[in-house]
Design a protein that fits this description.
Number of domains: 1
Structural class: mainly beta
Number of strands: 6
CATH architecture: Beta Barrel
Number of helices: 1
CATH topology: Thrombin, subunit H
Largest sheet: 6 strands, antiparallel, barrel
Strand content: over 45%
Helix content: under 10%
Length: 118
Amino acid sequence: MMAQMLKGSTVQLTVRTQTGVDAANRPIYTDTLETVENVLIGQPETDEVVNELNLSGKRIAYVLGIPKGDDHDWTDTFVTFFGMKFRTIGIPMTAEQSNIPLQWGSKVKVEYYGKDTH
């Protein structure tokens, strides 16, 4: 029997791009959704949930495994999957890519933000 391979899910990541400046020289941004393939979606450990809630007041809903080589900015942005919208918490935690045997080299925590309205 063949071993089953781990396979991530497809998510939609909100990417913010500066498109100009206003009359007061403040940046103007446009948000677009980009598809990211092969993202692992896992449940956080109880200690992670409690610690984050105590430190920041945010409740972790999931921990996402980001594929190696992905160059999106996952800091302080929105991600949509399972018909729900989530906001990333903090910066992605990245390990030395060559020391990780699987396809995912970073992880980021997300909190529930609401139903997907797209």
